[in-house]
Each structure stands twice: as C-alpha cells, then as structure tokens.
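Let us work through a complete example step by step.
Step 1: write down the sequence.
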Amino acid sequence: MNTVSLRAWLPPRAVLSAEEARLYTEESYAVWRRQSIIGGLLALAFNNAFLLMDYLIGPEVFKVGLQVRLYWSTSLGLIAPMLGVMSLKGFIRPAPVLQEIVVVATAAMSGLSILLVAALSPIHSTYWGIFYHVGLVPTMVFGTVMARLRFRAAGMLVAAILLMHWVALACAPHIPQAPVMSVMLSVAIPAMFMLMFSFQFEQAELRRFAQKQRGKALRAQLLARRGDLERASFRDPLTDVSNRRGFSAEMDQLLSSSAGEPQPYAMLLIDIDHFKLYNDRYGHLGGDECLRRVSQALAQVASNASAVLARWGGEEFVMALPDADAHDLAAFGQRLCVAVREAAIPHDRSPTADIVTISVGAVSSTQCPAGVPWSAVLEQADLALYRAKHEGRNQAVTA
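Step 2: predict the structure and record it as tokens.
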C-alpha cells in the first residue's frame, strides 16, 4: 500500500543565497509594514466587535469586556500600527525582528483578552466560558493571514495562543469533557491548517522572490552579453582595432559633434607593402602576426595624435585625424611609415626592403569640396595611396 508522507505533500523548501535572503527581508518588510498598519487596525476593530456578543450575553459580561477589550487590549494594541506608521514616515527604523515581536505580542494580547473576559465574568463556570475560547481562531487568522507574519513568527503566535488556551481550560471549573474536547478541536484544527497555510505562503513568496531575482540576474547577464557582442561587432577580432562598421560609427560621431562650422580632418589609407609575398613566405599564421604588429605600431601613433584607426580590409588600414589640414599630413604620414619600420618585422621576399613597410595615401577634408561625405574624402586618399605605391612604396603621399 502506497503512503504519502507530510513532507512529500508539502512544497519543497525555497533555498536563497545570503544576498537574496537579505534583499528579500528588506523588500518583504517594506510591504509588510504597510499591511501591518491596516491589518492591525482591522484586528482591533474585530476584537472590539466581540463587545456586541458580551452585551447580548449579559451586562456583567459586557462590563468586563469593556474594561478588558476597549480600555486595556485596544490601548496596547495600537502600539503595532503606530510603530508601523512611524517606521513608514522615517521617524524610527526598528529591526524587522522587533516589528514581528510587537505584532505577535499584540495578537497574543488580543487572544488573552478573550480568555480574561471568560475568566473574570460570571460566565467562567458556564458553557459560555468554554465556547468563548473559539474566539481565539480569528486571532490566529489575523496573525497568519491578515498580518502575513512569517512562518517562524506565526508559529510563535499560534503556540502562545494554544498554550494560553490549554492553561485556561485546565484552570476552568469542572465542566463536562464533551464540550471541552469540542472546543479544543475547534481551536487546534484551524491552528494546524493556518500554520500549514503560513508555511506554504511563505515558501511560495520565497520561490517567487528567488525566481524574480534570478530573472533579474539573467537579464543583466544577457544585457551585458548583448553589450559585449555589440562592441565586438565594431572591432576587428584579429588586430583588436575598429573594423569598417566601427570606423563608420566613429566618423559619424566625430563629424556630428562638430558644432557650428565643420572642423577640418584628414583621412589616411594605409597598405602593407607586398603582403601577398609575405603570406607566401611566412604562411597565413605569420601573416596574421604581421597584421597584429603593424596595427600595434599604427595604434601607438594614432593614440598620441587622438586619431581614429581601423582595419579596412585585408592588409589595408584607415585612419582619421581630427583637426588636421594639408600642412600636417606629410609629416604625420611619414611618422606612420617610420613606426612600422621601427617594428622591424622581417620580410626577406619584399622587393622594397628586408623588413615590412607601408604605403600611405593622405588627404585633408579642406582639399575636397565643402560638405562632401567622409567616404568621398576617403576616395581621394585611395588615389593618393595608389600614387604612393606607384612611386616606389614605403612612403606617404598627400593629395
């Protein structure tokens, strides 16, 4: 015969990390403070509504109920809502445990007031005195449902109320066992169900919070990954300088940032001399290393001049030099050629030199018609590069 244990019936316990537990405490208590104010006031109203039953039973019972419920229980019961209001307004910052203790004490005091009315009034020796204990059930409902106490605090409240309930029954005058057992079951069974509800509700809240936090973390990771991929789409993976897409974006940003009259800039197109021969001699892996070393040499010069460098394709690089006119270009282009020569990358198949060299074509935007796009300026730089290669390579030529 198959049996189902209570542990198998209950939902699995939610497991939170230390940081998630801290965040859950902060978030849940912010909501719980507001709920405790409304719930505390409603609980006081319901507690005092029992005065109607006291009145219907008899004037002596009503007199005791008025003193216990209204004057004593209500006065002390206002502490929890007042504490919640002062906490929300920022006047005090009580620890969450202290707030729970205050609510548990308030609810337990409400339950005690029911037992005191039954014990101090003439009904203590009648069936009415026993059946008054059923009024403890709404008190437990307040703690587990309305006040939304955490399971630990709800368990403390239910345990305190059941203890007072059993002590009061034990101290009651001799009454037949049947009504006593009936009342005990009427209080104990709802108490068990409310504790189960409190546990399930808390675990559901913890799982919901954990899923939300992990969803946030996953979204943050996806956004970070998306940002990495977006940045990678603008970079050349081999040389780690900008690619065509990245260069286009940087040029658009550079030109759009010019306020008022457009600032002059220069475009330089750079080609590694005899790169096909280099690949034939040293292989494609050697060619990749050559591209990396050339880009590093160019990047050093570009960084010092606040220029924008990108790999344009194959063995070609492009560079944009802000605030540059035609007079600056020749010297700057030669600096690029010198930087690559100083890298001293061997190239024993080159007809030009025994090391890797570059040819540079440069043009200033001031040499082009006003308002032309940067792509048109780059076309002029390409013509200058053709001249540099045609006139012997290893040099910079301006338009």
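Step 3: interpret the result. Residues 14-217 form one domain.
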